[in-house]
Amino acid sequence: MSHDMSNDKNAILEGPIWKAILYFFFPILFGTFFQQLYNTVDAIIVGQFLGKSALAAVGGGTSTIINLLIGFFTGLASGASVVISHRYGSGDSNRTNKAISTAMAIAIISSILITIFGLLSAKASLEIIKTPEDIILDALSYMRIYYLGSVTLVMFNMGTGIFRALGDSRHPLYFLIIGCLCNILLDIVFIGILKLGVEGAAFATVISQGISMVLTLVSLSKIKGEINFKISTSRIYTSEFKEMIRIGLPSGIQSMLYTFSNLLIQSSVNSFGTDTAAAWAAYGKLDCMFWMIINAFGIAITTFVGQNYGAGKKDRVKKGIWTTVLFSAITTFVLSIIYCLFARYAYMLFTNDKNVIDIGVEIIYTIAPLFFTYILVEILSGAIRGAGKALVPTIICLTGICGFRVLWIFMAVPFFNTLGTVILCYPITWVITSIMFLFYYKKGKWLN
């Protein structure tokens, strides 16, 4: 399992840019795909064996609450990842090792805080989002087991971030695939055979994440060359810690506020009735293909910029950004056409209710042709973060996306109360945010 990192580093810092980006992009994309697959299979097994109320207990609001906490931490982890890629790109192995040690110490502390805060707030948070009485006990026991085992997810995520910062996106993919397969197997054993119900689903998730975590930590400790990592010697180095918080904290806050603005849109959609809510829920499953691809490009450019910025290769940084924009644009164009051509058939996978399908097709026809308006938001924010400037991208996203969405929902929707008006808040806020990012890219001193 030991491996040498120098080849991964060279590919990012030298040679054809398009090759370096795609080499990094595909493992991230496959990793996200497996994550989605495992979430979907998880939902199918729970739904088929335990029924719709168990499905509601482990999905929907429960997962949104968990995502609020975990999403905040993931933002912090992205800060650690950027700092490590800078240190590694600059060739300073001593500071790279200090940064990795600090990142792991942050993960240990974060997982303790998530467990304590999660357990204390679980019941109240389920009541706040009006979880139905008949599922609240199931939802609560699921969340408690999840929070007790959250160390496995947090440590795995941080380990994955470290691998990517070092230019290796393949190992995280292998460990994720193993974790996904274990989860599906354990779901069948715990839910289908041992009849452990919702708790079985939670135990399956935590144990399979634990397996991925152990593989990641063991593999990190076996890296050859100048990287030497031991979980037992993890400690916080003040200068690395400050830098990680400076870059990661804005991302964490942004992630939480994104979730809040999406909850607001969800409540607007719900006001149009059950058929619309069902069509919107299915659309959420369908549009994940676009988000998986665009997010993978975003993560790829963050690491590419991070290492090249650390190595002082500013021209390569700029070429890398526009190469990634071009790849994203071509992919988005093809995807938009596929979505519009097959919208009706895609909805038939979820339901045979004609009204739900009609509403769903309207949603896809409104949003899919305008996906391209989001590309610059993802790529430029990822690139600017890669250069270690986290505050401005966060302010731009919070103003352009979250702020304008809230304004739109409260000011435009009451006057033109249609589903189309609600949905238009997506492309409109993407365009505003893209313009702000382009302006900052041209005028801001983010490459200094």
**Beta-strand residue fraction:** under 5%
**Main β-sheet description:** none
The rounded distance between the terminal residues' Cα atoms is: 38 Å
Oligomeric state, counting identical vs distinct chains: single chain
Residue-averaged pLDDT: 87
Number of helices: 18
Global Rg: 22 Å
Shape: globular
- Would you identify the regions where 5 or more consecutive residues have pLDDT less than 50? none
Can you count the beta strands?
A: 0
Secondary-structure-derived class: mainly alpha
Helix content: over 70%
Write the element-wise H/E pattern from the N-terminal end onward.
HHHHHHHHHHHHHHHHHH
Q: What's a concise summary of this model?
A:
By secondary structure, this protein is mainly alpha-helical. Helix content is 83%, strand content 0%. The protein is built from 18 helices and no strands.
